[in-house]
Amino acid sequence: MSAYSDRDAVIVGAVRTPVGKGNATGALHDVLPVDLLAHSLRELVERTGVDPAKVDDVIAGAVTQVGDQSMNIARNALLGAGLPESVPGTTVDRQCGSSQQAISFAAQGVLAGSYDVVIAAGVESMSRVVMGSSILPGSDPFGLGMAQRYPDGLVPQGISAELIAAKWGFSRSELDEFSASSHEKAARAAKDGLFDRELAPIAGLTADEIIRPDTTVETLAGLRPAFFNEAYAQRFPQIRWEITPGNSSPLSDGSAAVMITSGAAARALGLEPLARIHTTTVVGSDPLYMLTGVIPATEKALARAGLTMADIDLFEVNEAFAPVVLAWANDVFGAQGAAKGLERTNVNGGAIAIGHPLGASGARIMTTMVNALEQRDGRYALQTMCEGGGMANATIIERL
C-alpha cells in the first residue's frame, strides 16, 4: 500500500446491485432502469456519508439509450435518488465499457481540478430495453464512409467471438472449461461472503441471480452454438461454431456506482480512500474482430504506468465471451504463462457467471475489483473491457 497526495483521484466508495437475469422472469425486470440506477446512487451517498450537495457531477454509462433508458438517465436517476437539484448528470456510451469510461472521465475531472467529488456509475436493464433496439427500422448508424472502408461489412459480436476462437485456436472444451471455472469462482465468492460488502439488495434480490454453482464442463458441452449463420459460415470457413450461451455472458440487469474524490477532499470529508486511480487509457482496435482491444489496452496502460504484468496483483478482464479472456491471457502472459496468469484474473468469477449488464459492467467490475484487492492484500489491480465497434478501456488502481 502507499500514501496519496491531495491531487490524486481516489475511490472512497463503491456499491452495486445484485445482477439479475435479463429477461421477463428476472428479479429486477419490474424495476425501471432509472430507479435501478437511483438505488445505487442513493446507497453510495448513504454509505460514504458525503453531503450530496458536495457532489460536483454524476457521470453514468448506459448503452441502449432508448425507451426506459432515454432522456439522460444519469440526471433523472440522481433526482430520483434525492440528490439536490444543483447536482448535474450526464450519460455516456462507450458500449460495454461505458461505466468504466465514466470512471475515467470522473478521475480526469478530479486530476484536472474540475471536480472535488464526483460519482461514476452505470446501468442497464436488458430485460426492459432490448439490446440493439436503439437502431430503428430503416436507419443506418454506419453511413457511406464506413461502407466504403469495410465493403464486406462488419459482423455482430458473437461472430467476432467465433473469429477470435478460430484465430487463437481455442477448442470448445477450453472455452467451456474457462466458463465452468467462472461459475465455480463466483459461487465460492458468494458463499464466502466476498460480495457482501459491495452489494445493495433491491426488489428482494440479495445475491447475484445468474451464478450457477452446479455448472460443469459436461453440462456446458450439451449447449448448441448460439450464432450459427449460413452466410457467415460461407464467408468465414475457419469458424468452428464453438460459441454457445454457456461460454458467453448472459443478458442481465443491474447498476453500480463509484465515488471518486481528490485526495484533499477525502481528507477534508474524513473519508478513508480504498484506492487511487493510478492510470487510465482507452484504445481502438480492429472492428471486425472487435473484442481484442483488451490486449493493446493492457499494454498501453502498463507502459503509461511504468509497470509490468508482474507488478499487477489482480486482473479483471470482462468475460463478454470466453475466447476474449483466453486470447488476452495468451498474448499478455505468453502461451506458456497464460494458465498461471489466469490464476490472478477474475478471481471472484466474471461476467459469464455474474452477468454483464452492459452500461453497468465497468462500475460493477471496479466495485468487485476494489474489494478483491483488499481481500487479497494486494497493491495493484488492472481492469480492462472489450467494447462494441473495436475499442477497449484499461484502468490501473493502487490500493491505499
From TrEMBL:
Active site, UniProt feature: C96 (acyl-thioester intermediate), H356 (proton acceptor), C386 (proton acceptor)
InterPro entries: Thiolase (IPR002155), Thiolase-like (IPR016039), Thiolase_C (IPR020617), Thiolase_CS (IPR020613), Thiolase_N (IPR020616)
GO molecular function: acyltransferase activity, transferring groups other than amino-acyl groups
Keyword Plastid belongs to the record: no
Thiolase N-terminal domain mapped to chain residues: 10-262
Keywords: Acyltransferase, Transferase
Entry-linked SUPFAM superfamilies: Thiolase-like
Keyword Flavoprotein set for record: no
Domain Thiolase C-terminal, residue spans: 272-399
Entry's family note: Belongs to the thiolase-like superfamily. Thiolase family.
PANTHER family linked: ACETYL-COA C-ACYLTRANSFERASE, BLR7806 PROTEIN
Name of the featured protein: Thiolase family protein
Organism: Mycobacterium yunnanensis
